[in-house]
Specification:
The chain is mainly beta.
């Protein structure tokens, strides 16, 4: 008899709960747009900490319309990112596959961004014009930028090694996107070129890690009775004894935290360059220090601890989200020490 094939159906939710491969998130999809204007669809920055602001509620349907409300915000430091290359993708019966990529010339790459030698080996001879011609002849379905962060500009992290990642492009045709990306090679992209105040973004980050934990802390299981003969912080039953089979859906001990998570529709309340004592609280942010580059105020909390790199992406579920004007009246710079 032939072997019966029955694929698993439905979502696995957050399973398996295992450690992320790297300390910053991976964007698995980029939204599409019918606009003629070519723009970058993402960015990356370092989470500095949280504070609170007072802002006027401009939602006319809100019960506090016109009043000042207290809003918790997360401060994300976002220095400019360096464009290193362009990558093209083609669609195949097995999904998207890399069609080719074009980088800066070897000498120009080291001259424009010497810190890249900490991340990748010294590139060999590379003719970018030749690779751009090859990309233009391909039947591409998507064009992305290859960019790198500049951690040496951030005082809150001790790392000097840049992180290399992809950023999606939207708007225009594939040909115009290639030409636009070609002009950006070796240039810096600032946050003000990507996002505006009042827009919604999705934040991809890695949560705070807690290591290997038991089932009670990991899943919030119920403690057994104090009259239990052996232990309390364990399962009452792992399954039937005859087969000795333990289902994968059973909650057990394992890794807790340091998982990739995506939070949707986070509102950008401010994008600015810091002036003296404008955003850094007295004594600096806990475990971070001072903010010296462009920063963003994002409404609510973000995954991960301070100093962790978070990635921003155009919101994919914000079609029906109304954008109200942002009117910030006060930003708290009170000391966070001892809080």
């Amino acid at each position: 008899m032939a072997k019966r094939h029955h694929p698993r159906r439905g979502s696995m939710a957050f399973s398996p709960r295992k450690r992320a491969q790297r300390h910053f998130g991976r964007v698995k999809s980029w939204p599409t747009s019918d606009s003629d204007e070519i723009r970058v669809q993402g960015f990356a920055g370092w989470k500095a900490g949280m504070t609170h602001i007072m802002m006027r509620d401009t939602n006319p349907k809100s019960t506090s319309a016109g009043q000042e409300v207290r809003v918790p915000v997360t401060v994300v430091e976002v220095p400019a990112m360096m464009v290193l290359g362009v990558r093209g993708y083609r669609m195949t019966p097995y999904g998207k596959q890399t069609a080719g990529e074009a980088w800066l010339e070897s000498g120009a790459l080291i001259e424009a961004f010497p810190d890249i030698s900490r991340r990748i080996p010294k590139p060999k001879e590379h003719e970018s014009d030749k690779h751009f011609e090859a990309l233009s002849e391909e039947d591409l379905s998507e064009v992305r930028l290859i960019v790198a962060t500049q951690p040496t500009k951030v005082s809150g992290t001790t790392s000097k090694t840049p992180e290399v990642m992809e950023l999606g492009l939207s708007g225009g045709s594939i040909g115009t996107q290639l030409e636009w990306a070609r002009e950006q090679l070796g240039e810096e992209i600032g946050i003000d070129m990507v996002y505006e105040e009042g827009t919604f973004v999705d934040v991809v980050g890695i949560t705070k890690g807690f290591g290997f934990q038991g089932v009670i802390r990991r899943f919030g299981g119920k403690l057994l009775s104090h009259k239990n003969s052996k232990r309390r912080r364990q399962h009452g039953n792992l399954g039937d004894k005859g087969t000795g089979y333990v289902r994968k859906t059973l909650r057990q001990a394992g890794q807790k935290g340091f998982h990739q998570r995506t939070e949707f529709n986070k509102s950008i309340l401010r994008i600015s360059e810091p002036e003296e004592n404008e955003i850094t609280p007295a004594g600096g942010f806990l475990n971070y220090g001072e903010v010296s580059n462009h920063y963003m105020l994002i409404k609510g909390s973000l995954p991960g601890p301070a100093k962790r790199l978070v990635r921003l992406r155009d919101a994919v579920r914000a079609d029906n989200k109304p954008n109200y004007p942002v009117d910030i009246t006060y930003v708290s710079t009170a000391s966070k020490q001892g809080v």
